[in-house]
Design brief:
CATH topology of the largest domain: D-amino Acid Aminotransferase, Chain A, domain 1
Oligomer: single chain
Shape: globular
Distance between the termini: 89 Å
Strand content: 15-25%
Largest sheet: 5 strands, mixed
Number of domains: 5
CATH superfamily of the largest domain: DNA ligase/mRNA capping enzyme
Bound molecules: 2-(butylsulfanyl)adenosine
CATH architecture of the largest domain: 2-Layer Sandwich
């Protein structure tokens, strides 16, 4: 009996020991898994450089979720399953959450007089010498990120300044917001404040790609706001288009900092994106010059700004001035003049675009916005006329959307103008080829004649010669118009086969120009595979999709023999795009055109670039004005040779190409001992390669 008992106890003990061992082992495994996933997250979200495939990452995360569900006592609220897991949940949105300290706004001034009167004068009365931190005022949506022990736990919109909306799930998708802070001695609790925004480039992509449930946004700020509000059934990838820049902090458990500059430096050290254009000045004139510089050059920035922000740098001095109910007294926003102008709609013309869609163009009395005269704007399609309830004689508000494209954002109907309004007559036949227009499901009108319609042919040929396609700069858009109007060319092959006889029939085209064009067309054009695909003008195949396709298919032949399954295997290519491609390659006429194009074009495939050429895999930066070659052409040629073109100099840069009036990049290159090449030398080297080496 005793023996039996002993055996029973031993077995129990072994079982308990095994359980303890298993727990210990599992805990170690969970910690290890969390560490691995965190390091992948770090690479993905902070370095923007993922080194794991999605399905492998999912496998690791599922493993961790399983283990944590089996042993709930090993769960941890800072585990990556609690943060990045959100990637796989649907978007939950709009739950209210308090800020730890209020998120205030800024007082604005719009001219130098007010800047002095309302900001510098009261400050100078109390403290005689102070330095100011001058920052850009990012035009996005304010956000408050809460980090506990370095882990991102929530992201809240500004709301009423006290309570905002919890949009953590969406914010986790933004690549440059770290889920975990870098560095040592991290504060236990830290609120980081900044702005989420969309770059001008991504804004264009957004409006083109219709990722946004077919909504067209009029400016970058409304795009961010609109997308955050779309929420339901939204394509998660849309948040990849967003960016974040921080301008300061809110609550912090210890008081670490002496001045604003130090805060921004520390944030950078933590891996938080901050703006590189921030400057510290004590001189009033330098501050005003900072404003003037960015007012003039803001179009060069990749994102929109609506002014500058001037802050007393020293935090003790900031506290002397304190806050009003809604804004600090130690900071001011010095805003740029409004980008909107009011004018009168004179008439609406109708054009047919490359895809056959009828596009209304609004003509109005000329307005000047930021130094540019504008007298017309596209209305995209006829639905826009209805949406705006637009009529001839209306007072309209013009905005330069995304800082560039003019757009009618509003119609102001006054009692005075209401009687004079005249309906806009929508055409029933194509204004170019007179064929009867058809209606799409969404009421958009289009011409079905494809390249038999001269307007569509002209638009296509302009696309064909454009920079991102074949890149033929010797044939201008006006020449294309003339050639098509005179029935001298019917397709892209005719364009590449232009001869003296045809060209001499074009009015006002001198012998010199003809010679130039023919000399250029005599050579076979070298075009990278992605650009060739783009040049075909397949509906919905933009340059981004062309890039993706060019990496997926090794050769053009592979691409032409593709099928629906293969196409749908390419991430980010949907069914509609796949069908457009199949539709295109199914048509004999298109294959015929491609075959004839290949007689005049050499396609360069990514893996066909000779590794022996001097520029292969070299990291190259260009500075200054070029005299003999356009920058775009140079970049294009270097890329064909496999060079990597960067915008900023770093120690890793191999070559700096220098033109006239180089920037400080030249000094940096000298400091880092980087090879410097001038324009003449680069042209010489490129010519040598073009003559002696086959790509
Ligand atoms: S500081 C307590 N700095 O502008 C003062 N704000 O119009 C906090 N903004 O709500 C603001 N760029 O969202 C500051 N460099 C910058 C900014 C900036 C954009 C936004 C911010 C603020 C709004 C006020």
């Amino acid at each position: 009996m005793e023996k039996k008992n002993l055996k029973f106890h031993i077995i129990r003990l072994i079982k308990i020991l095994y359980k303890i061992y298993k727990l210990f082992y599992l805990k170690k495994k969970i910690i290890k898994l969390r560490k691995i996933i965190n390091s992948y997250n770090y690479r993905y979200y902070i370095l923007n450089n993922s080194n794991i495939l999605d399905y492998q990452y999912d496998k690791l995360l599922t493993q961790l979720i399983k283990l944590e569900n089996l042993y709930p006592y090993l769960q941890d609220k800072y585990s990556p399953t609690q943060l990045v897991g959100a990637k796989y949940k649907s978007f939950v949105f709009f739950k209210k959450k308090n800020h730890k300290i209020p998120m205030l706004s800024l007082n604005n001034v719009f001219n130098e007089n007010d800047l002095f009167k309302k900001f510098f004068f009261p400050i100078n009365k109390i403290i005689n010498k102070s330095s100011f931190c001058c920052e850009l005022k990012f035009d996005g949506i304010a956000i408050n990120l809460l980090y506990k022990n370095g882990y991102l736990v929530s992201a809240i919109t500004r709301g009423d300044g006290i309570i905002g909306e919890n949009i953590t799930q969406n914010i986790l998708q933004i690549k440059n917001i770290p889920h975990i802070l870098k560095g040592k001695n991290l504060p236990k609790i830290l609120e980081i404040r900044g702005e989420i925004f969309i770059t001008k480039k991504n804004f264009k992509l957004l409006n083109q790609k219709k990722l946004n449930q077919n909504k067209l946004f009029s400016n970058t700020r409304s795009a961010v706001l609109g997308i955050l509000k779309l929420n339901k059934n939204i394509n998660k990838k849309i948040f990849n288009l967003f960016n974040f820049l921080s301008y300061g902090i809110g609550f912090i458990n210890k008081n670490f900092f002496l001045n604003q500059q130090e805060i921004l430096k520390k944030l950078k050290y933590y891996g938080i994106p901050t703006c590189k254009h921030t400057k510290i000045y004590s001189s009033y004139y330098k501050i005003v010059n900072f404003y003037k510089y960015f007012k003039k050059n803001r179009h060069l920035l990749p994102y929109n700004i609506d002014g500058i922000v001037i802050k007393i740098n020293n935090i003790k001095k900031q506290n002397i001035f304190g806050y009003t109910n809604h804004a600090p007294k130690w900071a001011i926003a010095y805003k740029f003049p409004s980008q909107e102008k009011l004018t009168l709609l004179k008439k609406v013309n109708f054009q047919i675009g490359r895809t056959g869609i009828l596009t209304p163009i609004a003509n109005f009395n000329t307005v000047n916005i930021n130094g540019v005269n504008i007298s017309f704007a596209t209305l995209y399609n006829i639905n826009e006329i209805k949406r705006l309830n637009l009529k001839i004689g209306d007072n309209i508000v013009i905005q330069r959307c995304g800082d560039v494209i003019p757009k009618i954002t509003n119609v102001i109907i006054s009692k005075k103008s209401i009687k004079k309004r005249k309906n806009i007559l929508i055409p029933k036949i194509c204004p170019s080829c007179n064929s009867i227009l058809k209606k799409k499901k969404n009421n958009i009108l289009y011409c079905t004649s494809e390249l038999f319609c001269k307007a569509q042919l002209k638009a296509y040929l302009k696309h064909f010669i454009s920079r991102n396609a074949i890149n033929i700069s010797f044939i201008g858009e006006k020449l294309i118009d003339k050639l098509v109007d005179k029935d001298l060319i019917k397709n892209s092959v005719d364009l590449l086969n232009l001869n003296n006889f045809t060209l001499s029939k074009v009015e006002n085209l001198g012998n010199k120009s003809i010679k130039k064009i023919l000399k250029f067309l005599k050579k076979k054009q070298k075009v990278t595979f992605n650009k060739f695909l783009f040049s075909l003008g397949i509906p919905e195949i933009g340059i981004v999709t062309s890039n993706i396709i060019s990496f997926f298919f090794k050769t053009l032949e592979d691409f032409l023999n593709t099928n629906l399954i293969k196409l749908q295997n390419i991430t980010s290519i949907g069914e509609k795009t796949s069908l457009n491609i199949l539709n295109y390659i199914k048509k004999k006429h298109n294959i015929n055109i491609i075959q004839n194009l290949l007689k005049k074009i050499d396609i360069i495939y990514p893996n066909n670039i000779s590794e022996k050429n001097f520029f292969y895999q070299k990291k190259i930066v260009i500075t200054g004005k070029l005299k003999f070659i356009t920058r775009h052409n140079l970049v294009n040629q270097l890329m064909i040779l496999g060079a990597i073109i960067n915008t900023n100099i770093s120690k890793k840069t191999n070559i700096l190409i220098v033109g006239i009036n180089p920037s400080s990049k030249l000094l940096k290159a000298i400091k880092f001992n980087i090879k410097i090449i001038n324009e003449n030398k680069i042209i010489y080297l490129l010519n040598q390669i073009n003559n002696f080496e086959k790509y």
